[in-house]
Amino acid sequence: MADKLARRAYELEVERVKANLVRELVEVRRALDAIESRLADVPASQNFASDARRLAVAADDVASYSGALDMANRLVFLLDDEEG
Fold first, then answer.
1. How far apart are the C-alpha atoms of 5 and 27, rounded to whole Å?
2. How far lies 43's CA from each of 32, 37, 40, 48, in Å?
3. What does the pLDDT read at residue 63?
């Protein structure tokens, strides 16, 4: 019973991290789109630094969530080995 609960907890963590990763990838796309659209308006638009910072934060979050997803997947894999 405890092993099944642990496995379910790990699976829920994988799902949560995947959802966070997808959300941050969407944010990266938005930030890239904002920078690209501002480039079309040069020199009228001078807000590149703000968009670039937003992109950097989103990219950092993507890296963090990717690492968390790798770890959660490893934990599920280790649990599978213990059960098998």
1. 33
2. 18, 12, 9, 11
3. 96
Cα-Cα end-to-end distance for the chain: 15
Rounded to 5 degrees, φ, ψ at 43 are -95, 10
Confirm if 69 and 21 have CB atoms less than 8 A apart.
Answer: yes
The per-residue pLDDT for 26 is 96
The tens digit of pLDDT for each residue in 24-63 reads 999 999 999 988 888 877 776 567 888 889 999 999 999 9
Contact present, 79 and 7 (Cβ < 8 Å): yes
DSSP 28: H
